[in-house]
Design a protein that fits this description.
By secondary structure, this protein is α/β, with parallel strands linked by helices. The chain contains 15 helices and 17 strands. Helix content is 32%, strand content 23%. The strands form 2 sheets. Strands 3, 4, 5, 6, 11, 12, 13, 14 and 15 form a 9-stranded mixed beta sheet that branches. Strands 1, 2, 7, 8, 9, 10, 16 and 17 form an 8-stranded mixed beta sheet that branches.
Length: 556
């Protein structure tokens, strides 16, 4: 999508202006569009380039909330897993998860048998009218021998067996966010990455729009709307400065969330290992570090550290990295994981409870929806602060309902539960995948076909059409074993990719497991540079920006 004249179709006024292009802004744009609102979303960087890109790729089914007996959240999470697998079946798939059991009653096989029965009761309808590949089996306990077979390197001392259940895995979280945005765009919404809000336009105590700056075309513009929703996540406190408000209900502390990727796989299951973290000289608390299989590698996390500085340039301090690696070696010693194996650090900034102690993080459990007119600010502007990737769509439904009341406007019924996202019109995923492998007329390998189907779903056919017009586009990207050149062109033509980082980190998955080799980077920047008209120095700047993403360990 060219940067030339990209602003020409902006409407005179929208029902809804959304600031922030992470999972919460993306689902809000989708839900608003389905309900008949005219909406625009702007994001100062690329879509899903910040906290929403940092996750263990797990869509939680709600089992973790049994400990607090939060039955409503269990029901909500189970429903969202079902919905996401239905509307994006190529991107969201069942994931087996397991943790060891112990002799203590609350961590015993007996306790988990009861928990699984209760979870089945609460989520009784989770498999109704569901693709067989998307069925979520009942949880069960397994013997110590079965646990050893699933995690051979695990030290079994003190362990009695395992508790096995199913959540879901988001194969490509960046593309899921993008799918919500492009699906809304295809239905008439507007969406712009690399557009920054500079100021609010306030008239008679009411926010009527924003002054924005389009970074790509270097144009200033005004965008008018009846309601403004801020969904900027960790930038929320900075947003509050625009309305000169310091109300405690509008201010939140944040923590840095850390996940690590290593290029080894230990199990087909995601597994959690208990860590006893020291709080002070007299107290400790239990938590789990999870090891999640993903594309032949393993994601490990999550760790939390206080983050009191800007979320723009987030890095991990050496002592924080040392703490993460020490904990891995402590809880999983037989795996012999070393710091040299780390290929990528995923960092994000998430809200924590206001009463969190310095040594122990209490992650915010519920989203916040703030109407500034009730806290001394102007009317017509609200903030939504989310806490879980899993429930973003559900929060979007509630937010749009709130917006409709503010507008005094009766909206269409939402179809976001049955409506498929772009690429997701697939009744049976396994059957669809096998058909594509069997009908391959372009000499693509099964690995490449699976890669394309998992990332693009039914849009696979549009990739094939590009190859039909130019067979060279069916060739592998140099240095990749599955990605093809057609994806690079498709990302630029159809998916708002404007930078090398967009291309390698968030449209294709070429750079998502770690830094690509120099051959791959040089080919991709030359390929994209030809389409974008970049000079040699501009190409070098693009490479520098990409490499900065892989240098997240600070020197201080």
């Amino acid at each position: 999508m060219s940067t030339i004249n990209r602003l020409r179709n902006i409407k005179k006024e929208y029902d809804l202006i959304i600031i922030g292009g992470g999972i919460y802004g993306a689902t809000l744009l989708w839900e608003a569009t389905l309900k008949g609102l005219s909406a625009i979303l702007i994001e100062k960087g690329d879509f899903c380039s910040a906290t929403s890109a940092n996750s263990l790729k797990i869509i939680h089914g709600g089992l973790r909330y049994l400990q607090q007996l939060d039955l409503m959240r269990i029901r909500e999470s189970s429903k969202e897993v079902h919905i996401l697998m239905n509307i994006a079946p190529h991107l969201v798939h069942p994931l087996p998860c397991i943790i060891p059991t112990y002799r203590q009653l609350n961590k015993s096989k007996l306790a988990f048998r009861f928990a699984f029965k209760l979870h089945d009761l609460i989520s009784f309808d989770r498999n109704i009218k569901t693709d067989p590949e998307k069925q979520i089996p009942s949880g069960k306990v397994v013997s110590i021998n079965e646990l050893h077979n699933l995690i051979p390197e695990l030290e079994l001392s003190g362990i009695t067996g395992g508790a096995l259940w199913y959540d879901a895995q988001d194969y490509n979280s960046e593309r899921l966010v993008l799918s919500f945005i492009i699906s809304a765009y295809n239905r008439g919404a507007d969406a712009f990455n690399y557009m920054e809000m500079r100021n609010l336009i306030i008239r008679k105590g009411h926010v009527i729009g924003i002054k924005a700056y389009d970074i790509l075309s270097r144009q200033e513009l005004e965008i008018y709307g009846k309601i403004l929703v801020n969904s900027t996540g960790p930038w929320m406190n900075r947003f509050n400065e625009h309305i000169n408000i310091n109300h405690k209900e509008s201010q939140f502390p944040f923590a840095k969330a850390v996940n690590i990727i290593i290029p080894r796989s230990f199990s087909n299951c995601a597994f959690g290992l208990k860590s006893i973290a020291k709080v002070d000289d007299n107290a400790q608390y239990n938590r789990f570090i999870f090891f999640v299989p993903w594309r032949g590698a393993t994601m490990i996390g999550t760790w939390y550290f206080w983050h009191n500085t800007s979320p723009d340039d987030i890095t991990l301090k050496p002592n924080e990295f040392f703490a993460c690696m020490s904990e891995i070696q402590n809880i999983f010693p037989n795996a012999n994981i070393t710091s040299d194996e780390v290929r990528f650090l995923h960092l994000g900034v998430i809200p924590v409870e206001r009463n969190s102690a310095k040594e122990k993080f209490i992650i915010k459990r519920h989203h916040s929806l703030i109407d500034y007119s009730r806290t001394g600010g102007p009317d017509g502007v609200i903030s939504v602060l989310g806490v879980k990737y899993t429930t973003a769509r559900n929060v979007a439904v509630k937010t749009v309902d709130f917006v409709s009341k503010k507008l005094g406007k009766k909206l269409n019924s939402s179809n976001s539960e049955p409506d498929h996202l772009i690429g997701g019109d697939i009744k049976c995923f396994d059957e669809f995948l096998q058909i594509k492998k069997a009908s391959n007329y372009h000499m693509l390998t099964d690995r490449t076909i699976q890669h394309l189907v998992m990332n693009y779903g039914t849009k696979y056919n549009e990739i094939i059409e590009l190859i039909s017009d130019n067979k060279d586009l069916g060739e592998l990207v140099p240095g990749s074993e599955e990605a093809i050149k057609a994806e690079l062109l498709y990302s630029m033509k159809k998916e708002f990719a404007y930078t090398l980082s967009d291309l390698l980190l968030r449209r294709t998955d070429i750079g998502s497991l770690g830094k690509p080799n120099d051959e791959t980077i040089n080919f991709c920047v030359a390929f994209m540079g030809k389409e974008m008209g970049w000079s040699g120095s501009e190409q070098q700047d693009q490479i520098k920006s990409l490499l900065k993403v892989y240098k997240r360990l600070s020197e201080n």
